[in-house]
Amino acid sequence: MFDPVLRSLLRLYPRAFRDQYCEEMLLFVRDRRNENDGAPRQVFLLLEFVWDLTIALPGIYLRDRRRFSECSEIGSGPITFRLVEAGRPSYWVVLASIILSLGLLHSIRSLHHCPGEGTNNGSAISMESSSLRK
Amino acid sequence: MPKTKLTPLPQAAFQILLALAGEDLHGYGIMLRVLDQSEGKIKLGPGTLYSSIQSLAEGGLIEEIEAKKSSYSGDERRKYYRLTSQGRSLAREEAQRLAELLKTARKYNILRGDYV
Questions:
Q1: Is A80 helix (H, G, I), strand (E, B) or coil?
Q2: Of A63, B4, B54, B74, which is least surrounded by CB within 10 A?
């Protein structure tokens, strides 16, 4: 019972934090479990981790969020580059990307089905030029 | 230093810096050392410990070093942490700040006896 509950608890941490420290945290917990034999003590240990998680989690998420919004400037003078750290994009950005992708897909499909439809103006110009020649 | 709240140093972070002042330790070793130096009063959980480690590492106060054979378990997957010179000077500053606070508390008879 201990391991599945623990893994579910660890999933509550932000991904970046998990990637960096999950394995170590599991080793840490393994060591703590070795200290505490017996079912009641293990349950107590699990409760201790839940308590610790509730204390630590808000801070970790805040820091994680702050890190994503931080930009760093490179260079000095008239031209500077702003590096936005890679991270979780906002929901608006995701939504805009989906809409743009759908629009692009639709354009490609319509061009594929009727390639000449968009050149009406061109044909009108060529007709005018041919009438002028006459 | 990045924008993490390390001034004044949180208690857990200060304890971790003190624990690493003696030797390089891994997470569990840090927890044991903190428990020992606080006379059993502070038992860091994994979330608090690794959250503090992350802030300290981002602030350049501690650094991750290559895994070494642990006398405790011989597990090479563990990461070890070392106090940087910046971390040492910040720990010193924090200790001085606390000492001055203690001096003031003594001056106003809030605290008596030889604690330091």
A1: coil
A2: B74
